[in-house]
Design brief:
The complex is a heterodimer.
Chain A lengths: L4 E10 L2 E11 L4 E5 L6 H9 L6 E6 L2 E2 L10 E4 L11 H5 L1 H5 L4 H14 L15 H14 L4 E5 L7 H18 L2 E6 L2 H7 L2 E6 L2 E6 L1 H6 L4 H6 L4 E11 L2 E6 L2 E7 L8 E6 L5 E2 L5 E12 L3 E7 L6 E6 L12 E6 L4 E5 L4 H18 L1
Parallel strand pairs in A: 3-8, 3-9, 6-7, 7-8, 13-20
Antiparallel strand pairs in A: 1-2, 1-4, 4-5, 9-10, 11-12, 11-14, 12-13, 14-20, 15-19, 16-17, 16-19, 17-18
Chain B lengths: L1 H38 L19 H7 L11 H34 L2 H12 L6 H11 L5 H8 L14 H24 L3 H9 L4 H29 L3 H6 L7 H11 L3 H25 L4 H5 L1
GO biological process, one term (chain B): transmembrane transport
InterPro entries (chain B): MetI-like, MetI-like_sf
Family (chain B): Belongs to the binding-protein-dependent transport system permease family. CysTW subfamily.
């Protein structure tokens, strides 16, 4: 029987504040699914609703078709991995892993045997009798996963468990988590504000903002075909050119901006005359002018990153223009003050409506700032 | 220590250290030595001290235990009082622990911070009143025709007034109340540092409430429990005011025995010896608690 996780019109209100609004979503069994969003977007609330620590104000959660209403965290087929892991410091490693079995009345020798198997799975076969305080950050991480797996959950819920690790370890744990998920076949639902984590590990990502889901899809779709301005600015870097849609033909919209008439793929529900913004990724902006869209800008700052450099330019865009230039030998000529001719193909850009909802525009600027901070 | 010398210079540091040393020696160590010395001498008049009758003896310590008949379970009066004090203090400690644990858990982990600080304040305010006054107010409350009996009768819980103060009840109630906070604060402090996620993690793994407390909360609170028990036991065992006010002739406390040897029998050596036996009892209790809860002195100091 399928163990899909269904969120059916889930809404969560705290007093006047709506933390989560009308979420409809199905996470498929065996999927690695991420909720990505800035802090305060409601993703942690969703996790607490799924794990049973809070009941939604409206709507239903079903796991494997069974309504979870009224079922506490100890009665659900879910296991939660806390942001700070919440390992029990006064128990040894194997006692931690076997705690869920101890609760279920499994005899001690069987518990220990199962704990040893799980230690094998997380590649820590010698750590059974160690104290939690003797473990490194990455090891604690894996013990927390083993502890959750011991109760054989249908669904693992992970609340930003990598945020306390340093960069190298974080990247290593990404592939580790993915590998454990593949090996066990358990559904992983992962909460993060780190787009790198969400994009690299997940089968599908839901981008959230202000209690709503903005877009659900595979990582590449989220990155290459954002459907809302928020997704376009929150996930990755984007150059923005705002204006008014002149016409739409064959899925390509032309938009009148301060940089002239630019064209890009038309986003959903876009009409001629709409206020809209064209988004184009820094790596899609090309130097040289042989593309359909052309503009010029002046370099004011260069960040050398090794294999590439980020060029920051002043031009007729909303905010500064960022271009990612590969380190292919031409970099030395790109110094502050140089005027560049830039171009991009219409299929590299996307035009999304920004009219009507004034809040989205203001919010996305703020979010872009937050996203930039996260990326840094 | 070297930090002290570095910061204030040799002269100043020496002055401070010798100040502390003199205070500790004159005010703390010396009086104890005088009492130790007394406790090993027979009770003599001032003239006889240092004379031919003066010698070192264990008689004062031995006299507490003389006459114990384990076959017929007969004990001399002073030893009976000693046992009652041991049992009473243990009981008070246990009652305090049972009463305080849920309250401390609620204050530390369940209540909002504002409510917790308000409730802590309410708990503390009565303790701004002098201990004798508080104990005496219990004397009034527990009196034969006092408010407690009137209320219980009015509610129909009892038919006739109860003599609360004639048995050990008054002493136990009074001591539990008097020393409650000495259990509450160590427990509260220990529970406060417990990560709420640990409780939630245990619940998420399927644990019922009692097992969460047994396996996660209580082990974490162990140092606090040990400190609270030590404080309450030591205070209860050496309390004088509560048994003096709320006790009856049948509930004499060992401190009262010590007092009467000192000031009624004028036998300072015997009084001193008994005082050290009480001290020994407290030290033994402390060591037992440290053993039982597997906590070290450093844990307790936290």
């Amino acid at each position: 029987m399928s163990q899909d996780v269904e969120l059916d019109n889930v809404t969560m209100r705290f007093g006047d504040f709506t933390a989560v609004r009308n979420i409809n979503l199905t996470v498929r069994a065996g999927e690695f699914f991420s909720f990505l969003g800035p802090s305060g977007c409601g993703k942690t609330t969703i996790l607490r609703i799924l794990s049973g620590f809070t009941e939604p104000t409206e709507g239903h959660v079903r796991i494997g078709g069974v309504d979870m209403a009224g079922k506490g965290p100890n009665e659900r087929p879910t296991a939660l991995i806390f942001q700070n892991l919440a390992l029990f410091p006064l128990m040894s490693v194997w006692e931690n892993i076997a705690f869920g079995l101890e609760v279920r009345g499994v005899p001690r020798d069987k518990r220990r045997k199962r704990a040893m198997e799980l230690l094998e799975l997380i590649a820590m076969p010698d750590a059974a009798d160690k104290r939690i305080s003797e473990l490194s950050g990455g090891m604690k991480q894996r013990v927390a996963i083993a502890r959750a797996l011991a109760v054989e959950p249908k669904v693992m819920l992970l609340d930003e468990p990598l945020s306390a690790l340093d960069l190298k370890l974080r990247q290593h744990m990404r592939s580790e988590l993915r590998a454990i998920q593949r090996r066990t076949g358990v559904t992983f639902i992962y909460i993060t504000h780190d787009q790198g984590e969400a994009l690299t590990m997940s089968d599908r990502v839901a981008v959230m903002s202000r209690g709503r889901i903005e877009q659900v899809g595979p990582s590449s779709e989220i990155y290459d075909a954002p459907q809302t301005p928020f997704v376009a600015t929150f996930v990755g870097e984007n150059n923005r050119f705002s204006g008014r849609v002149a016409d739409i033909a064959g899925g390509v919209a032309r938009i009148e901006t301060a940089a002239g008439l630019l064209s890009g793929r038309a986003g959903p529900a876009l009409k001629a005359g709409d206020k809209a913004t064209l988004f184009v990724r820094p790596e899609r902006l090309r130097m040289g002018a042989d593309e359909a869209n052309r503009l010029s800008a002046r370099i004011h700052h260069v960040d050398f990153e090794g294999s590439f450099a980020n060029l920051f330019l002043n031009g007729a865009a909303d905010g500064e223009i960022i271009v990612q230039a590969a380190n292919d030998g031409a970099l030395p000529s790109l110094a502050p003050g140089v005027e560049l001719a830039l171009g991009f193909a219409p299929e590299s850009a996307v035009v999304l409506p920004t009219g009507g909802d004034a809040g989205t525009g203001a919010g996305s600027g703020e979010m872009q700032h937050a996203a930039a901070e996260v990326a840094a | 220590m070297s930090e002290l010398f570095r910061r204030y210079g040799t002269g100043m540091a020496l002055a401070m250290l010798s100040g502390v040393a003199i205070w500790v020696l004159a005010m703390v160590v010396l009086p104890y030595f005088v009492m130790v010395e007394y406790s090993f001498h027979p009770n003599l008049t001032v003239v006889e001290m240092g004379g031919p009758k003066d010698h070192y003896t264990l008689e004062n310590y031995a006299s507490l235990f003389r006459g114990i008949d384990l076959v017929n379970l007969e004990f001399p009066d002073d030893f009976r009082v000693f046992l009652r004090t041991l049992w009473g203090a243990t009981l008070v400690t246990f009652i305090c622990l049972v009463v305080c644990y849920p309250v401390a858990y609620y204050l530390a982990k369940v209540a909002t911070p504002e409510r917790a600080s308000f409730l802590l304040l309410i708990l503390v305010i009565p303790f701004w009143i002098n201990e004798i006054l508080r104990t005496f107010s219990w004397y009034i409350m527990l009196a034969y025709s006092g408010p407690l009996n009137i209320i219980l009768k009015a509610l129909g819980i009892i038919d006739a007034p109860v003599r609360w103060l004639s048995g050990s009840g008054g002493v136990l109630i009074g001591m539990t109340y008097a020393f409650l906070l000495f259990m509450m604060f160590p427990l509260y402090n220990a529970l406060e540092t417990l990560d709420r996620n640990q409780v939630e993690a245990a619940r998420d793994l399927g644990a019922p409430t009692w097992r969460i407390h047994w396996r996660v909360v209580i082990p974490h609170a162990k140092p606090g429990i040990a400190v609270g028990c030590i404080m309450v036991f030591v205070l209860a065992a050496s309390s004088y005011v509560v048994p003096a006010l709320l006790g009856s002739p049948g509930t004499r406390w060992f401190t009262e025995t010590i007092y009467s040897w000192f000031f009624e029998a004028q036998n300072w050596p015997r009084g001193s010896a008994y005082a050290f036996i009480l001290l020994g009892l407290c030290v033994a209790f402390i060591l037992t608690m440290m053993r039982v809860f597997k906590v070290g002195l450093t844990d307790i100091a936290k």
